[in-house]
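ok so dumb question maybe but i'm new to this and my supervisor (M.) told me to 'just get the structure for Cell surface protein' and walked off. so i did the thing. is this what she meant?? sequence i used:
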Amino acid sequence: MPIAFLKKKNSKKFMIIVLTIILFLVVSFLAIYQTQVYQGKIWSYLGTSDDRFHMMRIEGLYHSLQRHQFFPIINMSFMNGFGYIVNIFYSDFLLYPAAFLRLIGFTSAQTLMGYYLLINFLTLGVSFLCFYKVSRRYMNSLVFSFIYTLSAYRLHDMLFRRDIGEVGALIFLPIAVLGIYEIFYGNRKHWLYLTFGMTAIIYSHAIAPILVAILIVMVALFQIKELKVHPKRLLSLLWAAISSGFLSIAYFLPMIEQLHHTKFVLTETQSMLPKGASDLSDIVSWSLNNTIGQPNIGLVLILAAIIVLVTFTKVKNTAVRHFSIIAVILLICSSKVFPWVLFNKTPLKMMQYPWRFDMIITILLAIFVASDPLNIFSGKVSKFILIGFALLLTISAEYRLVNESSLQLVTQAAYNEPYPFSIGAGQEYLPQGTNLSTLERTSHKAKISSGKAKISNFKQYGTRLSFDFKNARNAKVDLPIIGYYGFQSTQSTGKVSKLHVDKKNNNLAQVTINGKGKVTVDYFETMTQKVSRRISFLALLIIVAALFIKKLNLVDFKKIEGLRNNKD
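this is what came out, is it supposed to look like this??
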């Protein structure tokens, strides 16, 4: 009898898991149906939009994998082979599934649909599991996953702006917030959630970690009394920061190295903080209208923010109360009410636009709604109604987006056409002084800028370029690649100089040749890139090994001197 009961219980649990997975798949599809599938067309701003930029990132990784370059540094699909060092500043971490879809024969349009389906499913699943880890309540976790994943700001990011990097970071944000909760309110020894969440965010989107760091500082200020009583919580935060730092060395050090050797456009970009801020009335209006054509938090969450303002003193759960108050503060700070002009020349300018706070506001208010501290949605029926309402708002917002700007609907055939010179509106990763329009008109071949020589047999395969030369007399030859740090001519034969950058000609790579021989130029991993990647990989192995040892109880850490557990 007990065995039959256990089997029945396990069978019920299995069915719930299966049905939840099916539900997430259906919702993931419905969330992109209007803009990606309906009528066989895709709604998108083309040209120099983020859409084309990120699709070219995928295309470049796909072509690199075809050449068996599994960790490319330069994206050579950009600018028809002139190359763009976007990979150093914008990690390819989350693009591999999309590149794999291209490898197995999917078109760009089909890849986008499949990739967005995967991203939606992962966001629903990760957010559900993170909330369930704390609450242990299925329906509340389901509410959180729906409110968070179908939030207006996330849909704005995914369907309007097409910022794949930030949409990817939103997959891992719940893990980071779970880590913040554990460190400051729960079991501080679970700091690895913050480590892995923050690391994944860093490798997904360069700006999002700044926002998470701001959240950590604000939570620490709210919990200052608790930290004075239990200072070891700060030690857990330090361990999380150190571990994440080691795991992220492979990202930060190569970027710093490139910035040291080259002055990029991004370093001279003016701050957009004051100009990017919106009126608070506009933010509220956009949210109440639940539009995804403007950055906002949507109808459900703006109503939640209003409720927080009126009732936060009645919220008994300390973490939920703090999170909701921080959300309202950031909502106000994301507008022109906050004096952003004072922060124009501070490190905070890296966040570019104040409305990026919506990312943090969204998850904190979603926690408030799902936790339901005021028992507004106490029954299962009311929770199902809320979930259904969130889905209907999503369908409505997408329908309005498509129909109000129907000219942006393009056929899949049109979408499949690549635009290699769509490198992002800011052109941040070009060396200063590079003229994109001139590059677009430049023929893709080696060209003698001074001196005399006969060159022939020019070839390019990815980052590798070569040509034969003879009768050369101090001939300076410009190659059709941007001369990023790491390109070398060491495999050449004959009298060939080191590779230089021709700053007078769009920062193209240049070599000086004499006599007869063969020029071979290729990109080689720098020592910094090699060492940093190995350090991060070793750090990952150590963390995984420690977790494995602890899980199997292979070592009793309590008996090791200096590692004995003490009460906080």
